[in-house]
Design brief:
alpha+beta; two-stranded antiparallel sheet; 2 helices; rod-shaped; SH3 type barrels; 66% helix; five-stranded antiparallel sheet; 209 residues
């Protein structure tokens, strides 16, 4: 093997090579068309280069190792393989674009939902503000009503006090009038008795004459 490598001027390398755009090439067990075919390699098949030569190159394809003609190898994938890669990349980009489109649609829907929620929150906030204002006004009215009730109670107490004073004054006036009336009656009685005695004395004096 060493003599064959030296005679053919091959070099050891650990690189990657690809089958050219030929439909299929053969992987043989040795350097020559008379060696056994191990398998067929399709265009674009990726190979691991084990030993490169001018005519034949030793490669590994999966679990198989053998020799292929060097002319059928190239450093880059063939046009068919590149086309397949481009197609795969395009399909991947389409899928990604579809996903991004769906994400954008979801985000737009979310933005619309958030906008509606924000508007609803604004309306709720406005209603709450109005209710708070009404509550403040209600508290102010309640305080004013409480103050008015206190004034009414104070006035009622004053009226009751004045009524009691008036009743006491009326009672006092009634007593005064009663006493005055009684005094007039007693005075009248005394005056009647006195007048009667005076008359009686005058008659007695006249009878003595």
């Amino acid at each position: 093997m060493a003599i064959a490598m030296a005679g053919s001027g091959v070099a050891l390398a650990q690189t990657t090579a690809y089958v050219t755009d030929a439909l299929e090439i053969t992987l043989r067990s040795g350097q020559g068309n008379d060696y056994r075919i191990l398998r067929l390699l399709e265009s674009g098949t990726e190979l691991e280069v084990l030993q490169r030569g001018d005519t034949w190159t030793r490669v590994r394809a999966g679990n198989d190792e053998g020799w292929v003609r060097s002319v059928y190898l190239q450093a880059e994938p063939g046009a068919a393989a590149r086309l397949e890669q481009v197609v795969d990349a395009r399909d991947a980009l389409r899928d990604e674009n579809r996903e991004l489109t769906d994400q954008v649609a979801n985000l737009e829907s979310r933005v619309e939902t958030l906008g509606n929620e924000n508007e609803q929150l604004r309306e709720d906030n406005q209603r709450m503000t109005e209710r708070l204002q009404e509550a403040d006004e209600g508290l102010a009215l309640a305080d004013e009503n409480q103050a008015l009730r206190k004034q009414v109670l104070d006035l009622e107490r004053q009226v009751n006090d004045l009524s009691r004073e008036a009743n006491r004054a009326a009672d006092q006036e009634s007593r005064d009038w009663f006493i005055a009336g009684a005094g007039v009656i007693v005075f009248g009685m005394l005056l009647g008795i006195l007048v009667t005695r005076i008359r009686w004395r005058r008659r007695s004096n006249w009878s003595e004459l």
